[in-house]
């Protein structure tokens, strides 16, 4: 049985939702960032990078949402990822962008120390990150225009990843209600039983 290592409120929410939606049997191991458990010797044996998510499988440990979500879809629920090459490429393109651009913009807000050693620069990094993150949310809102889900009419692992940023936007008090498509998408996601179970389990801000 695979084991998911995740931290409530972190980007690992994407993999948590993906596994729950897949219907696979899996174990859950929450990692408390507040206690620096991600840096504990025990967890570093699982993921030496000290990050979440990590998925322990019979074939070894898989890290990074893009890889985990692709593995989950291919292994347990093929319907959660397009089978045609072009559709799969679009799914991977969205998730790579989430990982490489959208997430780092938020990290400038939450962890500016990763990008500068001079604390005097932190306020500027946070403000720049906030502006960039808001811009990315507007782009996601545009992608959803006229669509039910990120890839169109069919739910996929990409959607759980997109929901992460709805929670983060609310956490930093961005005007999320102005993003009409993203708000409607968030409401549809909250209506999915598997998503709601995960959000309750993680006590996610989207349920507040």
In the CATH scheme, the class of the largest domain would be Mainly Alpha
Looking at the overall shape, the CATH architecture of the largest domain is Up-down Bundle
Q: What fold name stands as the CATH topology of the largest domain? A: Glutathione S-transferase Yfyf (Class Pi), Chain A, domain 2
- Biggest sheet strand order reads 2-1-3-4
Q: Which class of secondary structure composition applies to the elements? A: alpha+beta
Tell me the domain tally.
Answer: 2
Mean of pLDDT: 97
Approximate strand percentage: 5-15%
**Unreliable segments of 5+ consecutive residues:** none
What does this structure look like?
There is one protein chain. By secondary structure, the chain is α+β, with helices and mostly antiparallel strands. The protein has two domains: 3-79, Glutaredoxin, CATH 3.40.30.10; 81-192, Up-down Bundle (Glutathione S-transferase Yfyf (Class Pi), Chain A, domain 2), CATH 1.20.1050. Helices cover 54% and strands 8% of the residues. It has eight helices and four strands. It has helices at 13-22, 41-46, 65-76, 85-110, 122-143, 157-171, 180-190, 193-202; strands at residues 3-6, 27-30, 54-57, 60-63. Strands 2-1-3-4 form a four-stranded mixed sheet, covered by helices on one side. Helix 5 packs across helix 7 (180-190). The radius of gyration is 17 Å and the shape is globular. The protein starts with a strand and ends in a 6-residue tail after the last helix. The relative contact order is 0.14. The model has no long low-confidence stretch (mean pLDDT 97).
